[in-house]
Amino acid sequence: MNREESLNLGPAPLRKEKLVFLSVPESLRGPVEHLSLDPAGEAFTIDPAIPLPVELALGAEALNLEDLSWEMILAGMIRVLAEDPQGTHARYYRGFVLAVKPDILTEFTTAAFLKAHNGDYDLALEIIGLLEGIFPGLPALLLNRALILEEQAQARGELTTAEDEAYKAYQAVLDLHPPFPPGIFHAAFFFMKRRNFEAAHRCFQLYLQVGDEPEKQEQAVRMLEAMQSQSLDDALFQEAYTYIREDKPAQGLVQIGKFLEQHPQVWHGWFLLGWALRKLGRWHDGIGAFRKALDLGGDTGDTRNELALCLMESGDWAGARKELEAALWEEPENIKIVSNLGVLALKTGNLQEAEGFFRTVLELDPQDPVAQEYFRAE
Q1: In this predicted model, what pLDDT tens digit does every residue of 287-298 receive, in sequence order?
Q2: Residue 47 within a domain
Q3: Which of 6, 101, 156, 353 is most buried, by the most CB atoms less than 10 A from its CB?
Q4: Is the CB of residue 173 less than 8 Å from the CB of residue 180?
């Protein structure tokens, strides 16, 4: 194997190909030229006492030394680190990988977010997992995992596994010591989007204590003032939100009703009211609540999507389509909106149009259960 051969190791998934451990070939012993670990240029030295993990080529059962490449060695090391970041030779393998691929963090991170943008969230998270093996405990990677899970949850809708995993990921970011300001700032907006204003309030306040970017500090102050002006940190609102999110809409309905008696001009309250009513199957009442939210300034993709669901169930298919199209205009890659357009097309008997919507859904998220069920049923 030529020590100077070009290395083209891409962020491939953790393939379950056969992994073998190889005694260091004579040709690789000693310092490796052009591979340095520090600015002084000290060459990385391969330790002949530590076996090299090698991932075999696809379908291969044994290693042909003539086919041995840097890619196979690094793929093996990255796999070992991902499966056991604290293993016996983890520190050495980590140094080896960084000597050969010093830009691996940037390269793989870019690839992960590109995969997420294209809807391949599983592979994106797998790439982050590879990096976590190489850089265990790196705060930026914990945040990147949370951001990808958040994007997945946004696309697939609330009360999904991705939504729960995103919450856990952000909690891991918030548990870091010392605090990680960028993670706290992103967590605040994650909670804001999900109307968990109590958690968002805590995060913005914490960011003001530990963050050092003036622009973000000013933004945190504005968000805190906005929440306070609308009483979004009110205990009644938070209780209602928690009940509805946990699929207890009847209890949520009581609490949000009390909140709206005190704060009738807060559109978020009307949204929660509509959400609870929709879950209870009270379609016409839900329509009124969501229209009130729109009138008070809640013109968001979520509001129009929820309104469309109520309209659809009440038989107003034209009205539902109008709202879904408006929601899609605001959020063109929101899978749940595209999927709901597919469901509406099915209800109106337009099978060709439904197929088009569901194909789009699968392009954005190949694992979407609604679209998969449609093609299984054909």
Answers
A1: 999 999 999 999
A2: yes
A3: 156
A4: yes
